Amino acid sequence: MLQKNWQDLIKPEKLVTEAGVDSGRTATIVAEGEGRNKRLLVNGVGITGLTPITKFMAHLPLAFLDHPPKNALVVCFGMGTTYRSLLSWNIPVTAVELVPSVPRVFGFYHPDGPGLLSSPLSNLVIDDGRRYLERTSGQYDVITIDPPPPVEAAGSSLLYSKEFYEIIRQRLSPGGILQQWLPAGDAVVRAAVARALKESFPHVRVFHSVEGWGYHFLASERALPNPTAAELAQRLPVKAAADLVEWGPETTPELQFAAVLKREISLDGMIAEAPEAPALQDDRPQNEYYAIRRRHAKLAR
C-alpha cells in the first residue's frame, strides 16, 4: 500500500482553472469544463460529472445507519464529490484512489478541496481499492463504491463480485452498510450484480438514482430500516444537509430523500429480468461478457 500526504499529490500549479491534462505513469487524466459542466476523463474515458448522484452515494447509506457513524470509506475518488459529502458529516473519512493524478485536480471541481484534504479527518490512500481492503485491518460504518465506467471494462468485475463482497463484509463495522453503485448494464449484468449482493448479504435494498439512471444498492448484515424521508433528513448534520441540496434537484433534504425513496426497486425483480444469470464472481465476470449478448440482441430485432 502506498500512502501519501495530500501535499505530495496536490501541487499548486496542478490546480487548473479551466482545463488541464496530467500524463502520469498510471494514466492520463483530463479535467475540463466550466461550472456544473465540468468533467473528468481518464485515458479518454468520461468518468464522472458534477451530479447529485455522487452526493447520495454518501448521504443515503450514512442516513440509513441505525447508529451515529464513526467513520467511512470511499473506493474510487473521482471528482471527490462523495468524499467531500462524507466529510460533511464531520467523521474520519478514508478515500482510496488508484490513479495518483486524479486527486491533483480536486480543487478544479471543488474550491474547498485542498482544505478538505488537509483536514485531520481526511486520509487519502493511493492504492487499488480491493487490495487496500484485503490488507487493511480497519472497519468502517459505511463503505461506498463507485466503480469507474464503462461497466463492461476489463477488470471492473473485481469491484462487483461475490469474492469482493466477502472482503467488504470483513471490513464493515457491526451494522455497517455497503453502498454499491451500478451505473448501467443490460438485464444480465443487473441480475448478476443483484444476485451477487443477495448471496453475500442477508439484507439488500436497491434504489434508482435521483436522475433516473443507475442504481444505489444498500447492503448490510443487519436489517435495513424503513425510514421516511423526513426521518432520514433529521439524521443529517447541518453541514451535510446543506451539502445534499447543493445541486438539487429538490430544495430540502426531505424532498431529496423522498425523490430516491420513491424509486426503490425490487431486488428479486431485478434478478428475475435474467433469471438464468449467475451471481457475478471473479471467474464469471458477466459484465465483461457482453459482445455475444449484444450481437444476439441485434439479430433478434
Description:
It is globular and about 50 Å long. The protein is built from 13 helices and 13 strands. With 301 residues, it is α/β, with parallel strands linked by helices. Helix 2 packs parallel to helix 3 and helix 7 runs parallel beside helix 8. It has a single domain, classed as Vaccinia Virus protein VP39 (Rossmann fold). Helix content is 34%, strand content 22%.
Quick overview:
By secondary structure, the protein is an alpha/beta fold. It has helices at residues 6-9, 52-64, 81-87, 106-109, 113-117, 129-135, 162-171, 187-200, 229-234, 238-244, 253-261, 267-272, 291-300; strands spanning 2-3, 19-23, 28-32, 39-42, 45-49, 72-75, 93-97, 122-126, 140-145, 172-182, 203-208, 215-220, 264-265.
**CATH topology description:** Rossmann fold
Which CATH architecture?
Answer: 3-Layer(aba) Sandwich
What is the mean predicted local confidence, pLDDT? 90
How widely separated are the two ends?
49 Å
Cα Rg: 18 Å
Low-confidence stretches: 1-19
Instruction: Work out the strand percent.
Output: 15-25%
Taken together, the total number of domains comes to 1
Output the CATH homologous superfamily: Vaccinia Virus protein VP39
Protein structure class? alpha/beta
Q: How many beta-strand runs? A: 13
Element-by-element helix/strand order: EHEEEEHEHEHHEHEHEHEEHHHEHH
**In this structure, how is the largest beta sheet organized?**
9 strands, mixed
Strand order of the largest sheet: 1-8-7-6-9-10-12-11-13
Gross morphology is globular
